[in-house]
Amino acid sequence: MLLYLLMLKNTFILILATCLFCNCTQKQKADLLIHHALIYSVDSSFNTYEAMAVRDGKILELGTNEVLLSKYESQQIKDLKGKTVFPGFIDAHCHFLGYGLGLSKVNLIGTKSLEEVIERVVKSSQKSLPNLDDKSTVVMNRNTNSDWIVGRGWDQNDWDNKSMPNKNKLDSLFPKRPVFLQRIDGHAALVNNEALRQAGINLNTKISGGEILRIGNKLSGVLIDNAVDLVKTMIPKVSSEEKINAMLMAQNNCLAMGLTTLDDAGLMKNDIDVIDELQKTGKLKLRIYAMLSDSLPNYDYYLKTGPYKTERLNVCAFKFYADGALGSRGACLKEEYNDKKNWNGFLLSEQQHFEKKSEQLARSNFQMATHCIGDSAYKIILNAYKKSGAGKSRRWRIEHAQVVNPKEMKISDDIIPSVQPTHATSDMYWVPERLGKERAKTAYAYKDLLRVAGLLALGTDFPVEDISPFKTFFAAVARQDENGFPDSGFQMENALTRVEALKGMTIWAAYSNFEEKEKGSLESGKYADFIILDRDIMICNSKEVLQTKVLLTYINGELVYEMGK
Question: What is the CB neighbour count within 10 angstroms for residue 345?
Answer without folding.
Answer: 26
